[in-house]
Amino acid sequence: MPGSPRGGAGHGLSPVDRRMLLVCSFVLAAALGQMNFTGDQVLRVLAKNEKELSLLRDLEGLKPQKVDFWRGPARPSLPVDMRVPFSELRDIKAYLESHGLAYSIMIKDIQVLLDEEREAMAKSRRLERSASSFSYSSYHTLEEIYTWIDSFVTEHSNIVSKIQIGHSFENRSILVLKFSTGGSQRPAIWIDTGIHSREWITHATGIWTARKIVNKYGKDRIVTDVLNAMDIFMEIVSNPDGFAFTHSMNRLWRKNKSSRPGIFCIGVDLNRNWNSGFGGNGSNDNPCSETYHGPSPQSEPEVAAVVNFITSHGNIKALISIHSYSQMLMYPYGHSLEPVSNQEELMPVGSLSTGLMTAASSTPSALSSVTLGTMASCCRPHRSSPQPRRHGWPFGPSWSTR
Fold first, then answer.
1. Which of 68, 95, 194, 349 is deepest in the core (most CB within 10 A)?
2. Given this model, what pLDDT does residue 112 score?
3. What CATH code is carried by the domain that includes residue 318?
4. Do 348 and 211 belong to one domain?
């Protein structure tokens, strides 16, 4: 019935044809080592009221899940963006149409963009090998980024060092760059990127920012003043297991790779695993959900490592988490609509920041999303360059280093 989405169904395909299509897709994915998303679309829905938002939230609660929300149902003024697998398109579109929910197609075929991205990476890798240099205008694997970190620290040992703060679920090193001009336990700023593993543009932003810091120290007054007074800690790969998996098998993987006995689905949304607001708005208790918060606060080793490092340091003054979608600046708390105690201080700072970053970019859409926090919370703001997306693609097959 059109009033509720049913099991998988492709456009005009018989059940036998659909099964054959799925079998062929799995065979192709196994042969290429990557999942295939041919025919998957990204739909944008603008809900007019809370009732329509509720209808969209019902899609999120389906088991198994049939849509992947890139921008979830929040409030009527914000669009809802969701990836719909090809096998579910007919049912999901019928559900939207039966409830009078107007939608537009943002991305007609995700695999086309993935193929373009993979081709660009291969070309860049060939150029890097021939030039024996690291390209700051291309995406890189986990191994390439960790190799770059070692070289970067060696080259700039007067100001940068590497700290291992823990290990991931699959026992990969969790590394942090420390930018410091000397002293111990100085006031510090924490910056992390890539907590959602598929947001490759954030890792690239972290690398680009790290290079910018060392190049500008001693030349730019603001960067110089900050480093003379404070340290900067930067975690470029906050989710190493998930990031490795996006390169080896599933480009759109978002969570980490943790597994638990008796639970079929794997992975936890690390950005929902913090103690602050655990289990609240924007998270899900379904282990198969892209926003699954995990069994308990800080249950994931990737989150626990950050919490232990920051609390043991004791003098972190600001937390900034860089994301790649929604084009917004958010400050504490991201899980609540209640005003924070220092709202009157944060709001002017946020307004000034977004204005300056918009002016520094060629267009407002050239801003990527970040999360700005304090010691008490974690949330979400805005940053300029590199460009986070093209043609509605939030993970960015092309970007610039202006």
1. 194
2. 96
3. 3.40.630.10
4. yes
Q: Domain residues for 219?
A: 131-255+277-384
Look at residue 166 in the predicted model and tell me its pLDDT.
98
Q: What is the pTM of this model?
A: 0.83
Which amino acid makes up residue 110? I
Report the pLDDT value the prediction gives residue 378, as an integer from 0 to 100: 30
The full 3-state SS of the chain, as one line of letters, equals CCCCCCCCCCCCCCHHHHHHHHHHHHHHHHHHCCCCCCCCEEEEECCCCHHHHHHHHHHHCCCCCCCEEEECCCCCCCCEEEEECHHHHHHHHHHHHHCCCCEEEEECCHHHHHHHHHHHHHHHHHHHHHHCCCCCCCCCCHHHHHHHHHHHHHHCCCCEEEEEEEECCCCCEEEEEEECCCCCCCCEEEEEECCCCCCHHHHHHHHHHHHHHHHHCCCCHHHHHHHHHCEEEEECCCCHHHHHHHHHCCCCCCCCCCCCCCCCCCCCCHHHCCCCCCCCCCCECCCCCCCECCCCCCCCHHHHHHHHHHHHHCCEEEEEEECCCCCCEECCCCCCCCCCCCHHHHHHHHHHHHHHHHHHCCCHHHEEEEEEECCCCCCCCEEECCCCCECCECCCCCCCCC
80 and 180 together in one domain:
no
Domain with residue 86: its CATH number is 3.30.70.340
Predicted confidence at residue 393, as pLDDT, reads 44
Q: Give the mean model confidence (pLDDT) for residues 364-375.
A: 40
Identify the pLDDT of residue 11. Answer: 43
Model confidence at 373: pLDDT above 60: no
Question: Does 234 share its domain with 296?
Answer: yes
Q: How many domains does the chain have?
A: 2
Q: Which of 203, 211, 198 is nearest to 175 (CA)?
A: 203
